[in-house]
Design goal:
Structural class: alpha+beta
GO molecular function: Glc3Man9GlcNAc2 oligosaccharide glucosidase activity
Oligomer: single chain
Number of helices: 26
Number of strands: 36
Largest sheet: 9 strands, antiparallel
InterPro entries: 6-hairpin_glycosidase_sf (IPR008928), 6hp_glycosidase-like_sf (IPR012341), Glycoside_hydrolase_63 (IPR004888), MGH1-like_GH (IPR054491)
Strand content: 15-25%
CATH class of one domain: Mainly Beta
Protein name: Glucosidase
Pfam families: MGH1-like_GH
Strand order of the largest sheet: 6-7-8-9-17-13-12-11-15
């Protein structure tokens, strides 16, 4: 039999190789699902983004910095936008975008109240498919707001759309949107409506094409004159779209449709009571819902249009509608058979691509879940546009913003000027990039599109992102906040995965990102080590609610908080940069000197974690055999905060194994390292000894000697503490019976174990890390166990679970943890997926049970999905856990099979 093809042998793989030359990425799913309620659109004095542009304004107000829509598709500058609108004949408004609660309306913070899934996608966006569920009855907007408003307590569950009865009796439409590209700039859109109910039901279907509004704000002196775009109905019954010097496009319906036109401009009359455009952004809504014929343009032209079709879908039946957006020079193709042939061909190519990727994944359910995880990653790309300097100062053609904004949120990030395609954590709840989320995204993307993954890591370090002082932008609400420094780790993993896929080592990428990360490392050393002791105070570091204080704020006790996780992250950063420098030294020995520098940084951080301030005390607690944050009080006292949480497990992640031929490959580095360890026994004593090589004469660099590693793993693998049936909890379950309490100045600060949503909000927003499982640290722990296993070998075993009498090697424990994590989403022996919780509709209904949501985090005991429902960004790491691993470049990575 001939060998099965590898990824690059498939048609999609060949397209991917030519993606830049042929422009296959020019069009994609680049619209947000929520532009309203974002910082970018907030011009209020006090930074109240949720209130300044709420959902009720979204249909009537032109956005300044982006666009949103259901199943949105557009070009990579977001000049033209295509998305779906629906109306069931009962709703008070068109369904043009996803609805959810603002931060103050939900008892657990912002919260989307719609059901949709990303089911399929290819890396070049040659084929995409998503599913949206739309009730026959009026969408329960008011009920969702009112009932969630009544549930004030954080101990109460959220009121979800499934609780409203909106889907009872199958009285809803499954609306599937597919895109296929006949060519890089020729987009086919097929909308299939399936009626799951017992009676026929009508549905108004309105795919909308519009131009992003770039003309209402006034141009700066340096900006070129931009002619106003135009959509107009032609004699052929299609819409011609023109914009500046760009080649015109044509938008056509392959079945009879009424085209409606208006302007993508704010309805100032409705919102502010002032005169405005005759046919504003919400005119199509008013024509359909209110029956106002005069609402839309009588000239059949504007900057926004919709192809309006009303279908009656029989009970249990389905109807498909077809639309095409492509070059106006193309023939006016309305051949349904030819259209469907392109769709079928692109789907077949997607199947072939994933068949090659999943060649070694035997379980059909695992293949389904992995494909949906990767689809979510690909659908969550977004055109992200934000010029902070202009946002702060306001636009020439608009009223000046309040003066206080110049000294408010992000006012020290005026260099930031983004207009790029970026991977989002979640295009509804987090429709803005987050630095450390993006690092995890890139590692997952490297499985299918390493070029995109490399480009994203480089993008984050470019001068229009990275601060001149070397800080990486954290996230839109506070670019100056601090995320864990995992980007060197991500760059190294992406480099190795790319090498596994292509057979080539892209050292140019690694060198490019390495130089920028050295600047960022220097920023950490200079800004986040308050006492110059190699102990770090990074702030919340992504673990919002993990401790008793808001770690990003001034402490109520005064003093500083020496963070076990922040310090461990920096030790890990040092090792990652050291390893990258050694990789670069293969071709340029100059990098051996730099590798030595980061080796020394690692040793000094390891020493400091044990001897903070040189007085013998440290972040390691000998009595509990665990790492804790230490509170340094103004009077000089140091108080360990004995909360057993992920904070104390993150030191496991700072591990690197160097292979036996180190001295031959890097003689200068090896010589200097031996000298350093020989002359600084205080440093050498903190890590596994250089002169005690492990299996195959490998050398271990870790914060943990054997005894401490075993002690941490005993806690981590104890099912009464951290080990859940579905992964490692963020806080030890022991705190359920014995909460940690810290009295201070008449107050008592406490942490207990809360496996679902947190009942307190130390950090603000939907703070929740007091027990749930989440993927990023779990994934790093899997990698750390695998790396430790390379050193200790098959003879070294640990009891897993603790107290079970079952002893496993470290790689076997990594596999066990991977299995528990993937058990979150895979169908179990009882036919249930833990992620779907106890909702019978989701678990039992054949139209729900195989659509997998990728939640932000998961219940610490049951595995039910919690938080953002489409956090495919870091939860997409499940796709890597389902993929077999290969040895590449001195380590193991998930990789596509070789051809």
């Amino acid at each position: 039999m001939p060998a099965s093809p590898c990824l690059t042998d498939t048609e999609e793989g060949r397209r991917l190789a030519a993606v830049e030359a042929e422009g296959w990425h020019r069009w994609g799913p680049y619209l947000s699902e929520r532009q309203w309620g974002t910082v970018r659109e907030d011009y209020s004095e006090g930074g109240t983004a949720w209130d300044y542009l709420p959902h009720d304004h979204a249909r009537s107000r032109a956005y300044r910095w982006g666009e949103d829509g259901i199943a949105g598709f557009g070009d990579d500058r977001q000049l033209w936008c295509l998305a779906l609108a629906l109306w069931n004949g009962r709703d008070p408004i068109l369904k043009e975008r996803m609805f959810g609660l603002t931060n103050s309306e939900g008892n657990h913070g912002e919260d989307v109240k719609e059901l949709w899934w990303y089911l399929d996608a290819t890396p070049t966006h040659s084929y995409m498919r998503m599913l949206y569920k739309y009730p026959h009855a009026a969408f329960p907007y008011a009920d969702l707001v009112a009932e969630n408003g009544r549930r004030k307590g954080r101990n109460l569950p959220e009121y979800e759309i499934a609780d409203t009865g909106a889907f009872e009796g199958g009285r809803y439409h499954d609306v599937t949107v597919e895109y296929a590209k006949a060519a890089p700039d020729d987009v086919l859109m097929r909308i299939t409506i399936a009626n799951r109910g017992p009676e026929a039901a009508d549905l108004h279907v309105l795919p909308q094409l519009w131009a992003r509004n770039t003309w209402s704000w006034g141009r700066e002196s340096w900006e070129p004159e931009q002619p106003r775009p135009l959509l107009r109905l032609t004699e052929t019954g299609a819409v011609e779209a023109t914009r500046g010097r760009a080649s015109p496009l044509r938008f056509a319906s392959l079945q009879p449709a009424a085209f409606l036109f208006c302007e993508n401009e704010t309805n100032t009359r409705r919102l502010f009571g002032t005169p405005g455009p005759a046919h504003p952004k919400d005119a199509i809504n008013d024509r359909i819902v209110e029956g106002r014929h005069d609402a839309v343009s009588p000239l059949s032209e504007g900057t926004k249009c919709a192809a309006w079709t009303t279908v009656t879908v029989p009970a249990g039946g389905s109807v498909s509608l077809r639309f095409r957006l492509g070059p106006a020079a193309n023939p006016d193709e309305r051949d349904i058979a030819a259209f469907d042939a392109v769709m079928a061909r692109r789907l077949a190519e997607a199947d072939a691509f994933y068949a090659a990727l999943q060649r070694d994944v035997a379980d059909p359910d695992a293949r389904l879940v992995q494909r949906q995880a990767l689809a979510g990653m690909l659908w969550s790309k977004q055109f992200y546009h934000f010029d902070v300097r202009r946002w702060l100062s306001g636009d020439p053609a608009q009223p000046a913003p309040p003066e206080a904004r110049r000294h408010g949120r992000d006012s020290d990030w005026t260099h930031l000027n983004n207009a790029d395609i970026v991977s989002m954590p979640d295009k509804w709840e987090y429709p803005w990039y987050a630095a450390w989320d993006l690092a995890f995204h890139c590692v997952t993307f490297a499985l299918i599109d390493p070029a995109f993954a490399k480009g994203q890591l480089i993008l984050l370090t470019r001068e229009w992102y990275m601060h001149p002082n070397g800080q990486l932008p954290a996230y839109e609400w506070a670019f100056g906040d601090v995320n864990p420094p995992v980007h060197a780790w991500a760059a190294l993993r992406v480099y190795r995965m790319d090498q596994a896929m292509t057979g080539k080592a892209d050292r140019a990428f690694l060198e490019r990102v390495f130089h920028k990360l050295m600047l960022n490392f220097t920023w950490w050393v200079n800004r986040k080590d308050a006492g110059d002791r190699n102990v770090f105070q990074g702030g919340f570091l992504g673990l919002d609610n993990i401790g008793i204080f808001d770690r990003s704020a001034t402490l109520p006790t005064g003093g500083t908080l020496d963070q076990a996780d922040g310090t461990a992250w920096m030790a890990m950063y040092s090792l990652n940069l050291m390893r990258i420098a050694l990789e670069l030294a293969v071709e340029d020995p100059v990098y051996e000197d730099i590798a030595t520098k980061f080796f020394e940084h690692f040793l000094t951080i390891a020493e400091a974690m044990t001897h903070v301030g040189g007085d013998g005390s440290g972040l390691w607690d000998e009595t509990d055999e665990f790492y804790y944050d230490v509170l340094s009080l103004p009077d000089g006292r140091q108080v360990p905060l004995r909360v057993r949480s992920l904070v104390g497990l993150i030191p496991l992640c700072a591990v690197e194994v160097l292979d036996e031929n180190l001295s031959e490959r890097f003689p200068a580095f090896a010589r200097r390292a031996r000298w350093l360890l020989g002359h600084r026994p205080d440093l050498a004593a903190q890590v596994s000894r250089w002169e005690e090589p492990g299996r195959g004469n490998r050398v271990l660099l870790s914060l943990l000697r054997r005894h401490r590693m075993k002690a941490l793993l005993r806690r981590m693998l104890d099912e009464s503490e951290f080990l859940s049936p579905h992964g490692v909890r963020s806080v030890s379950k022991a705190h359920a019976a014995a909460p940690f309490r810290f009295p201070w100045d008449g107050q008592t600060f406490a942490v207990d174990y809360e496996p679902a949503e947190s009942t307190t909000a130390v950090f603000g927003g939907n703070s929740n890390w007091r027990g749930p499982i989440w993927l990023p640290i779990n994934y790093l722990l899997v990698e750390a166990l695998t790396e430790f296993g390379r050193f200790y070998g098959p003879e070294f075993k640990i009891e897993c679970p603790a107290g079970s009498g079952r002893y496993l090697t470290l790689p076997e424990i990594a596999d066990e943890l991977s299995t528990r994590l993937t058990r979150l989403v895979l169908r179990g022996p009882d036919g249930r997926r833990p992620v779907l919780g106890d909702v019978p509709l989701f678990q039992d209904d054949p139209h729900f049970r195989d659509h997998v949501p990728f939640h932000e985090y998961f219940h610490g005991d049951t595995g039910a999905g919690l938080g953002a429902a489409h956090q495919t960004g870091w939860t997409g790491l499940l796709a890597l856990l389902l993929q077999p691993r290969r040895d590449v470049g001195g380590g193991q990575v998930p990789a596509a099979p070789e051809g």
